[in-house]
Fold this sequence. Notes:
Layout: H1 3-18, H2 28-40, H3 54-80, H4 84-94, H5 96-118, H6 121-160
Amino acid sequence: MNPDEQKLELELARELRSLPDLPAPATLAPRVLAAIARQANPRWYRRPWPAWPRLLQAGSMALLLALFGALCFGGWELQQAAGAASGVQQLGMWFSGVAALWRSLNVVAGALASVVAHLDSSILLAGFAAAALGYAVCVGLVAAYVRLGLVRNEIYERTEN
Length: 161
């Protein structure tokens, strides 16, 4: 910071300190206290489950148990149904694309492993060094970007205050 900016900053600070304090509005304290009271006592559905009223805890537990039982019963009946075989066949057709993709990825991974196995160790070391250098450059650029953003933010805050 050059001397002119420092002088201006000191003059501004001196002038701001000489200003009298502004009184708070009379309605400020009741509004703040009301907001604190609202946050201190939230509605029952915004509280954690153990803090709910006991009747609502029992009702929600009964509902969840009924849903779980219905899900288990429906799964059992679906498995025993005569049309389950066609449902499983349809499900298999839906996932056939995923199976083909998995087989393709296995082939590519095998080919990559074969190529790496036949490469000279100096080539592998050069590749790892290039990857590490690229990583270090990215970390450095991010650090510089964040630092530059923080410095600009500090300058902006100084001019605002």
